[in-house]
Amino acid sequence: MDKINLLVTISIIIIFIALFLSLFLLTVKTAHKLSNRLFAFFLVLTAIDISANLGDLLAISLNMRIFISSFFFLQLPTFYLYVLSVCYSDFKLKRKHLIHGVTFLIANLVLLPRFYAVDEDSKISFLANIKSMPEIQFNHVLMHIQMLFYLVAAFMILRKARKIYLENYAGASIESLNWLFQFTVALSAFYFIALVKNIFKFTEYPNISAGLKIGLVLFELIIIFWYLYKALNNPGLFRTIDSKLKLVQDIILEEKNSNQFTINEKEHSEELLKLQHYMMEEKPFLSSSLTIQDISVAIEIPVRDLSLLINHTLEQHFYDFVNAYRIESAMDILKDSTKSKLTILEILYDVGFNSKSSFNTAFKKHTGYTPTYYRKML
User: Fold this and answer.
1) Secondary structure class of 101 (helix, strand, coil)
2) For residues 187 and 150, what is the distance between their CA atoms, to the nearest angstrom?
3) How far apart are CA 283 and CA 321, in angstroms?
4) Which pLDDT score, from 0 to 100, does residue 166 have?
5) What own/partner pairs with CB < 8 Å and gap ≥ 24 does 205-212 have?
6) Tell me, what's the pLDDT at 1?
7) Which helix (H) or strand (E) covers residue 228, if one does?
8) Contact 70/19 with Cβ under 8 angstroms?
9) Which of 149, 191, 203, 312 is most buried when burial is the number of CB atoms within 10 A of its CB?
10) Is 315 exposed, middle or buried (0-12, 13-18, 19+ CB in 10 A)?
11) How far is CA 68 from CA 16, 79, 136, 145, in A?
């Protein structure tokens, strides 16, 4: 009885927080409306799914209870679309995305002949033998296949987006991608535990399944609080990239396939000198929102050629290329005795960083020391 009360209590808290956060995401003024709406929908689906733990507290029909449980099949597809919307600024929902609702449709169609379309007594008999019903077993297999597919797909999207970002941008979006990766890892852990729970559910150890269920609900509460904390404390965290941008390795492959990939050493040397002169004289790296497109326009070198020059010829990501200039500039400030009163935070903003963690990481990678230790050494 205590376990049941605890489960119901935590479930009510999760439902309240999920719906409250959904309302906040739908009403807050932001440029990322689609991302907010998708995650709000994900939270609503989570609240609907968790409402199954309320049991008899909800006076609804058996058909509705089973139908509500099938909403799980929409959760990960919605999260996958959310990841796409966060990663790519030009992402839009299209009719083709309706395909992500196929598993939800299949799961309900499977139950139609022997559950939805039968009388109440037959429904009760079906639920009494639910563990041995082939429809339920099929839906559990389908559920786990879907879980694996969408989690792998989300990781692949994040991996590609991170590479594109490093090759074309030098702002703070890498942190949002890193955080979204961590969030996806947490969700993966959650669904893995759910998989283990479901395995025990169909064995002779249902108590283990019940214990894991309470653990999952607590884990879900932590994940939602984590997202809420990040979203409220970092409103500018989610900045996206252009999906039309290509990875350098794909550009090289395309040019090799079309026999256009040739290296003109003289032309590359001239472009490199032009780039280095612009970076030293104009100091565009002081802008935290600098992109490869900005430099391309300024020095009149096509983005494609500039990307190949930095990411392929110099064998350095644009992100690291720009940060190297920022760190050199920070080192000059740290060495200047007339600027000794400037704090590390003031310096990092002055040289183009907008995150203390990214500045410390880049500084240590470039010098082998933390900014504070480097200043003490001087």
Assistant:
1) helix
2) 11
3) 13
4) 83
5) 210/3, 211/3
6) 45
7) helix 206-233
8) no
9) 191
10) exposed
11) 17, 18, 14, 20
Residues of the chain with pLDDT under 50: 1, 237-239
What burial letters (b/e) apply to 194-211, b meaning 16+ CB within 10 Å?
beebeebbeeeeeeebee
Q: Kind and range of the H or E element at 181?
A: helix 173-201
Instruction: Quote the CA–CA distance of 56 and 270 in Å, as a whole number.
Output: 75
- DSSP conformation class of 97: G
- For tokens 């249902």, name the residue: 206
Query: Whole-angstrom Cα distance, residue 377 to residue 354?
Result: 25
Q: Domains in the chain, start-ordered, CATH in brackets?
A: 2-233 (1.20.1070), 248-377 (1.10.10.60)
pTM of this structure: 0.80
Give which of 137, 3, 115, 129 is closest to 67, Cα–Cα.
Answer: 115
Give pLDDT tens digits for 218-244.
888 888 778 777 766 655 544 455 556
Residues 250-301 have pLDDT tens digits of: 666 666 666 555 555 666 788 889 999 999 999 999 998 888 989 999 999 8
Q: How far is CA 313 from CA 167, 248, 307, in A?
A: 13, 11, 9
- Dump the DSSP string for 303-371: HHHHHIIIIIIS---HHHHHHHHHHHHHHHHHH-GGGTTS-HHHHHHHTT---HHHHHHHHHHHHSS-H
